[in-house]
Structure formats: C-alpha cells, structure tokens
Design goal:
By secondary structure, the protein is mainly beta. It is about 15% helix and about 55% strand.
Amino acid sequence: MSARRRLAALALAVGVAGAAQADAPPPGRYAAQFCVAVGDAQADCGPAQVEVRSARKLAVRIADLAYHLELASSQVDVVLMHGSMQIDGFFASYEWDGRTLRFLDLDKHTRYALEIAPHAPRR
C-alpha cells in the first residue's frame, strides 16, 4: 500500500473512530508522552506536561512550545504557540484510545499521539 493510501486509511480510521470518542481525563496537570511522525517515518516521542482544563480543552507544554487543543464533536482545533507567537494552527479529526489522544494533520502528513499518564492529577 502506498504512503498516500496508508495516510488516507489512517485519516478515515481516525474520523470513524472519533464518532465514538471518550473524554479527556479529569481536570488537572499530568505528565505525558507526545509523539509526532511525519509521513512514513517512525514517531519521535518525548516528555510533555499536560493541563486538562476541561473535557474539551487541553494545553500541552514541551519546553517553550505550547499546543492548545480544543476538541469539538468530530475535530480538534490545534494552535501551536512559541511564547506569545502562534507558529502553526490546523483542524484535525481525532480519537481517544484509552488515555491516548490521536490526531492527524493531513496537509503536512503528520500524525500526533498524546499519551497521558494514568496517575491522579497533580494540582
């Protein structure tokens, strides 16, 4: 299967699975692992801090970068900030797989996975 077809199949799977999504963990601060993969490349993962503000709003911090995620019924609005400057933004289909939020930027052929630690929230 070509890379383009695999990406389209993943997008379809994410879109279909997103219809039956769960919610985010309870509000609080969590440790997490954030993985990003471009095209067919293997994912590059690293530690992140997540602030779950509500079932539909999350903030993900990786060093001096912050991803602001706002989840709607079928899409996530992603805004990437460096300090007070927005450096990227896009809408994507998403799904919750247990405590992992997966979403896909089709324009950039980039897959994201945010695995939130299972422990109780840090306050």
